[in-house]
Write a structure and sequence with these properties.
5-stranded antiparallel sheet, 5 strands, alpha+beta
Amino acid sequence: MPVSLKTDYENLKLQTKTPVWTFAGAALLAIAITAGVISDRKNDEKNATLILLPKAGDIFEVKTKASQYTLYKVSAIEGDSAIVRINNFETNKISGLADLKSKGDTAYAEDEFAYSKKELKAMLDKGEIIDIDRK
């Protein structure tokens, strides 16, 4: 490169600055990831509390062994156990749980099953119960 062009290049390089907005996308991405992590932690803390104090009407979002998803609805509490009714339907995606919830109470089987709080906590810890919805 000729010396005159190299000098002009160096002068231009010193005068030119990278715009701040260039890094705005990376900053927004970092903020979104941080917010997501904080939200997940708060949701996990909420679920850990709710699982130990179940109430009638709670809905547990459950991942079955066949990698399907369904709902358990707490119909009563008896001593240390939650009596649940299982939804008659399953879905293969977590997003499908909203459709199952929209089917209402008639979508749950009449058969009831008892789970102790200890069993429910173990299910939550293993990732079988993925979320708890309390109205």
